[in-house]
Amino acid sequence: MLSVFLLGVLCWPMQAQEAQQTKQHGGISQEMLREIAGGYRETPSDKALRNAIGNNDIRKLALNQDNLKGMDTHFAIRVNSKGITNQKASGRCWLFTGLNVMRAKTIARRHLGTFEFSQNYPFFYDQLEKANLFLQGMLDNADKPLDDKMVEWLLRNPLSDGGTFTGVADIVSKYGLVPKEVMPETNSSDNTARMANLVSLKLREQGLELRDMVTRGAKPADLAKRKTEMLGVVYRMLVLNLGVPPTEFEWTEYDAQGKAVSTETYTPMSFMKKYGDTNLMGDYVMLMNDPSREYYKRYEIDFDRHRYDGTNWTYVNLPADDIKQMAIASLRDSTMMYFSCDVGKFLNSERGLLDVNNYDYASLMGTTFGMDKKQRIQTFASGSSHAMTLMAVDLGKDGKPSKWMVENSWGAASGYQGHLIMTDQWFDEYMFRLVVEKKYVTAKVLDVLKQKPVRLPAWDPMFAAEE
To answer: Which of 21, 317, 376, 428 has the fewest CB atoms within 10 Å distance of its CB?
Structure first.
């Protein structure tokens, strides 16, 4: 026994040393560190760059002077718009964009002056419906452990002010619309973070309580009753922050010259039927450009909806050129579209220009950034982050698009008179989603719509909500 003990004592330092060597093999040794540090050489140019970058905004230093020539703001194909909206410090771009698409059609159809749908009204019900979506999701998965992928995803995402066009369809089709003056913005709708944090905190607490009730064998009727009581608490919090949503109101329509046309009493649903779109899901097709997945396939993302009884985000994945073809057809017919992209990439906000040549980061950093769109998606380096209203395109002599323009929701002082202009090259690299009316969709895409969609999990990279 003693010999075995001594052998073990002698072996332990050897094992520890081997383990340490293994660690160092994958870690950074002193020798490796010296080699790595050679990547920076104290040359005059390196030192000048270090001084410059250490005291300045990288974007200003990388600003490509060769790309600062006069920006062409003429568009041969352009849909007219009246009034730039402002989502302020909120993630409601998806809602502003969806309503702006409807607003443009309403203004043109009824010859109105400046007009806006209330964004606060559908947002109120969006938050209430998302709260129910979360609580019911917790009930549906109550038999799974807390570290289950779906349960973890729910607890990480109990509530969001972001969304997609599906959310516009889900909420408006159920709750209708009202004019902006009937339910105007509040500080909490303009600045959603504080309210969202408090409601999310409450929802997580409520979700755990429902799980505990299931564990203790509560009856379905008792669970439903308790969930309703919980939603009552959320409803009160929303009213305190956003106001009381109207159920009936009187409103006067004015024409473009400011003359009163009619004064009537409406409900949100009757107003929507008269001034909005009554078939947002049936009349529109959602398109995606995601080169990380097979084209000409239909996909559905689980739990990517705004109502428990709503519709998951379902789209047709297509090459960018196919999407452009339908976008141009829509714009030629004076119809704006819901459009989303990775807006933060290569945005020169002062000019309102989205161009891959705006910034030369490679020259500044002395290296290359070589991932293509597919690789950026696969590594979570790029995704759909912001929705805007596609309203213009310019075509070259060859009939191909050279640049595009969107109506944004960051206020009239932002970008180019409240708009952003993008080069066609930028469109290829950072455009992700477009929603078009079915009448502009090609026969090939209509055939794809007949496919049973491939269902993707809620945590898929393409779930990312536009903000």
So the answer is: 21
- CA atoms of 227 and 124, how far apart (whole Å): 18
Cα dihedral 371, 377, 378, 379 in deg (nearest 10): 70
Selection from 298, 335, 333 nearest residue 318 by Cα:
298
pLDDT for 35 equals: 94
Domain ranges of the chain: 77-463
Q: What one-character-per-residue DSSP string does 87-140 give?
A: --BSS-HHHHHHHHHHHHHHHHHHTBSS--B-SHHHHHHHHHHHHHHHHHHHHH
Tell me the CATH architecture of domain 77-463: Alpha-Beta Complex (3.90)
Convert the pLDDT of each residue in 435-464 to its tens digit: 999 999 999 999 999 999 999 999 987 777
Residue 19 in this model has a pLDDT that exceeds 70: no
User: What span, in angstroms and rounded, lies between the C-alpha atoms of 326 and 442?
Assistant: 7
Q: Catalytic site residue 386?
A: yes
Does 408 qualify as catalytic in the annotation? yes
Residue with tokens 């006067």: 252
Can you give the pTM of this predicted structure? 0.93
Token pair for 417:
């008179």
First-last CA distance in the chain: 69
Of 35, 10, 72, the residue nearest 355 (C-alpha): 72
| Residues 11, 277: Cα–Cα separation, whole Å | 78
Which of 93, 100, 241, 306 is the catalytic position? Answer: 93
For residues 288 and 314, give the distance between their C-alpha atoms in angstroms, rounded to a whole number: 10
Write the secondary structure of 168-217 as one string of H (helix), E (strand) and C (coil). HHHHHHHHCCCECCCCCCCHHHHECHHHHHHHHHHHHHHHHHHHHHHHCC
What digits encode the pLDDT tens for the residues 101-148?
999 999 999 999 889 999 999 999 999 999 999 999 999 999 999 999
Say how many C-beta atoms besides its own lie within 10 A of residue 62's C-beta. 17
Query: Which residue in the list 120, 141, 348, 408 is annotated as catalytic?
Result: 408
- Alpha carbon distance 394, 224 (integer Å): 55
Write out pLDDT tens, residues 156-208.
999 999 999 999 999 999 999 999 999 999 999 999 999 999 999 999 999 99
Q: Can you tell me which residue has the tokens 């469109």?
A: 427
Q: Quick one: tokens of 367?
A: 């290296």
Catalytic-labelled residue, pool 157, 289, 317, 386: 386
Q: Are 210 and 227 in contact (CB under 8 A)?
A: yes
Residue 466 near residue 385, CB atoms below 8 Å? yes
